[in-house]
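@channel anyone free to eyeball this complex?
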Amino acid sequence: MLTRRQTLLAAAATFIVGAAGFDPAHAADKVVKIGIDLSLTGADSQGANRVKNGIVMAFDEANQGHAVPGYTFELLVTDDGTATAGQYDPAQAAINARKMVADKDVVAAIGPQMSGAGKAMTPILSQGGLATITPSSTNPDITSPKFAEQYRPAGKPIYFRTVTTDAYQGPNMANFLAEKLKAKSVYVLDDSGAFGVGVADSFQKQAEAKGMKVLGRDRLDPKAADYSAILTKIKSLNPEAIYYGGVTQAGVKLAKQSYEIIPNVIKAGPDGMVSSDLLSGAGFPAVEGWYTSIAAPHLVEDNKAAKFVAAFKERFHDAPEDYTITAYDAALVIVDSVKRVAASGKPVTREAIRDAIQTAKVPTIQGMVSFDENGDLADRTVSVFQVKKDATKPLNDVSAQYKYIEVAPQS
Amino acid sequence: MTTFDLLLQQTINGLSLGAMYSLLALGFTLVYGILELINFSHFNVFMIGSFVSLFVLQSFGLSGQEVILTGVPLAGVLLVAFVVTMAFCGGLGVVVERVTLRPLRNVKGPAAMITSIGVSYILFNIILLTVGADSKNFPNPMPAIRWHIGEATLDFRVLLIWAIALLLMGTLYMFVQRSRIGKAMRATAQDAEAARMMGVEVDKVIMMAFFLGSALAGAGGLIFGLYYNFTSFIIGFTAGLRAFTAAVLGGIGNVPGAMVGGVLIGLIEAMGGQFIATAWTDVIIFSILVLVLVFKPAGLFGRIAPNKS
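replying in thread with the prediction:
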């Protein structure tokens, strides 16, 4: 007869095996953990959840299809958004990076979404030798050799991207405003975040180079509610356009209030303004007419993406965004890298995976993904969109409400 | 835009902000006047007020900016929204006081204040976890009527918001000055012990102060939503801190002081954005807080605080 203790142990063992989805064929599989860091709490949560779902889908497909024989992928999902920040929080991102580095089974990571989080994470990831691929963070400093001491103190690049950087996103939008919309003057705003300030700076520089008159520059506090003072000031300066570098927390309020105060000014922003959080938070008609960019080719309407989009919609009852696809692509790069390391017979270590990512040439939805010597994406396409209401589709559906215009002119 | 129009527009902007800060500042002042307690849960009672009113408006079928009401329907919807929101928030304030602060009434030191910070975070996280983290679109059922004065514009809804804020503040002032319980509140503020000996039910007075302050915060939350057409779980902190500064500026414990302080902070924020930079708003406002505390700790209108001697 079993003692009570033994019964409990047996029950616990059954439970654990059951919970892990016990599958005899994979019983001997080695577990490869992938750290994920996204801004799941706060103003950008809807987009973040799509990114997460894109990643989950990629690894589920890899596990089901035995993409890497003998290995099973597991995800360690962390959230760098905090309630007090109301959006991504660099301090939390640093804690998450430490958590990933401390878990010896984690051999690679995906994320973060936000450059402000990326700046906080890279020193820790670099010391831990853990490579990450970001699906959307575009601040160029993080991968620039100029700041290598700060962001990759251990030497090798560990921050890879499946999007290009603000070295192209900001300036190319300036080119678009100057060449295509013939704007002669602009007022520049940012949201005080690492990403927002950086992209606004690079925009401003190129706008000046293009001969646009920069009438001023100010910074929005994303937690403040009222931007009427600065918008009234902008109204009095009468610019043809405003450019806002930042993400949705300040963006929602800016869109609302600028619609009231400066309705006839051209409004433009970076990928931080491509978001269903903006569409549902600010709503029509306030968001109508905003020009935005993404640091990638436009993918969701591409034929290559059709299969992914259909599968995503079926599984999550939700439409993916372009950065859902760049996240899916990032996961494909990691699966491919693990596969190559495993096939070569070498142990699947962080170092081996980093080197494999560095030399990756992976066919993905956005095309062939490969990285330059700093970890930046070889493809430098920036796409421009404009918000145009399509009443036949859900009003917070990014792929329906943002109309693709064209690839922004390169400098 | 001429300089005059610009100043006029920024004054309109500042007064609208100020109306909200005043309503919030009154809650700080009422409670501080009686208990000498800075009630940090007030921040998020305001935030919850905006969500309660959002649900009320949504239950009338209002969402987004498409449905516009005028005349009696508008007045009716707004009246119901204000009454429900203020009753709910007032009740919430009373519950917070009864459950978390009354047991600490006679504990010396900062225990009650720290408890109120804890309550604030609890409210904040309840909304975060139940309603979600994204910004919510707040319906605006008011018609887009605008008047132009030179190049400055004055919205109908801004005017309505001012009128409602003034009405609420005026009613509160009269209530505190004229009514029996208002008199009891003032007596308790001057000397709680003596008031008790004269037959004032101090617990009831404190409850009333929490009810009134929280109800006004609820009204402030609704006005916030109508004015900005959005709400989010995060709106309490910035607005709350600025309103607290307004209460200190006017003289904490002083009801008219809180009203004037709120308007001044609103105007300072608007003019600071115009002449310095929006990025400096917090530096300006909190420098004022520090300067007031150092040079005129009783505020512009004098502090009316419990007399402990």
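from a first look: The longest strand of chain A covers residues 30-38.
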